Give the backbone structure.
Amino acid sequence: MLKISNLHVKLQEEDKEILKGVDLEVPAGAVHAIMGPNGSGKSTMSYVLAGREGYEVTEGSATLDGQDLLSMEPEERAAAGLFLAFQYPVEIPGVGNMTFLRTAVNAQRKARGEEELSAADFLRLVREKAKTLKIDADMLKRPVNVGFSGGEKKRNEILQMAMLEPKMCILDETDSGLDVDAMKLVSDGVNALRDEGRSFLVITHYQRLLDHIKPDVVHIMAAGRIIRSGGPELALEVEHNGYADILTETA
Amino acid sequence: MGALAEKKQGDLAARLAAMDAPARGGAWLEAARAEARARLMAMGLPAARDEYWRFTRPASLNAPTPEPAAPFDDGGEAPMFGEVERLRIVFTDGVFDAAASDPLELAGVEIETLEEAGSRDIHWARDLYGVLETRGHSPVERPFAALNTAFAGAGVVIRVTGRAARPVNLIYRHESDTSDAILHHLVKLEPGADLTLLENGPGAARLSKVLEVDLGAGARFHHVRTQGRDPERTAVTHVFARLAEGATFKSFTLTVNGRLTRNESFVELAGAGAVAHLAGAALGDGAELPFHHDDTVFVTHSAPECESRQVFKKVLRNGAVGVFQGKILVREGAQKTDGYQKSQALMLDDDSTFLAKPELEIYADDVACSHGSTSGAIDEEALFYLRSRGVPERQAANLLVLAFLADAIDEIEDAAIADDIRTRLEGWVKRHRG
């Protein structure tokens, strides 16, 4: 599904290398987690994959089902099935959440040569998905993320994911700013989407999210590289001992 | 006489020499015209050195003849406000077009043309024509308004005693490339009366328009206007409004294109608890022709517990110029005033200009007044967020343009009209920007 090879990335403005040769492969249907200390490059990787400006790929590749992600516009990556749940979802005053969802769903359908969803079908779908995430009619009506609590913003990200049905979902610190109940709600939303044709890359600082979203593989990222990969037990090890041991071990 | 005054008088003399007097009216109208003419003679025309004209060159408005302007072909688009049950009054190049208009009959409303009303010896319009306009020259002179009062030959006078059964729609058609139109309308709402006034169309190659609105206690006046899309036309418009106790005045203006537009509003909250909202959305592209749009607003709080709100938005690119001069004056004794003013420009490139002069002048000590003026580019974070969800860049940018205008459009009270304006804007923005 997602294949990243020897990816080197630097910040355009600072000429500073952030990713220093990342290799990562997430097969179809798998859930991989990436953990790592602050500044290790986790969020940079998610932004680079989604196509945010300000980064320069100096070496390496990233493909989704064989398609070269790095040569595509952000909207093309989305239409190809990539989805990034933002760590800090953006507020867009003046654009209603419903309008936003409908525009996104239909833009992707159009890009894939499918027919747009009718207003009635869209409404039925969005209501059904919103209900399971406990998103009420008011949140759907309000401008995108404006005045939403941290938990509401994250639930709104998962709602978008549920509506867009991407193949490859990247969750960038989706657990940050969530209380226990909200974490459960968000995790349930993610788990409901788990499917053999859909893969997840879950970026997190904490093992507790992985209690809810059980990963197949856990990677540890440090200083712009994946320094260790293993099973779910690796996350527990980090939780108990911190990153210090792993970092020393691989240094 | 100083050089400035000489220039102002010289421009006025040249302008007057080229003007035809309107058809002679009855005694009261001729008296009002003569009075306005005397005031105009004392003022002269605006000069670029006048503080009030610092951001907008008055030359093309002063000129004896207008710059030619071709009417815009909208390709047979559905008429503005076409879905609204309304009474249509049509002016073509500044002349009342009876054949194209509906009969001037509406329950709860007296409507006449200015010519009709002006020909009577006794008419209520006498107490309004030029009266609010005259009050509007302090502290700043508005010579084009006086010129309008002195020379207007067409317009409507509307008096509402109850709730108007339907909105009144003034439709301004522009057919001649060289028309130089002067329209003057009066609207008087008796206590508790209610009227929605719709205006659309460019009106002429050069349009001068004055609207005087007198609102009785508890009256409600809603005003929505769109200024047509003729890219070559010039216009100078004035709205003078006076609100009695508990009256509501809501006005929204949409401007798309136009070589030069100067929209002045002068609103006085004269009775306690009155509410005035003024909003505007302007979209300009200076690629092929200049675009210059000026909103000049003066709101006076003369009574306590009144609320005023100004929301003006401009989307500019390719050398377009947007101007906002807005003032809130709170007079002594106007305690508990709630005054708010927002002017914002969205710059779609680095070539455009936004000039803003927000002002507060307050002589009461228990008031809440605020103003904010900003200009900026499209929010890159929001743009990326939309694109990351699959929305193509152009479409995402268009969505953000419309989002920027949203809180001005939200000032339109009628949901159906607001929706119509949103949908049209969406279409125009999409077609224009691809």
Chain A has one domain: 2-250. The longest strand of chain A covers residues 16-26. Chain A has a mean pLDDT of 93. The longest helix of chain A spans residues 97-111.
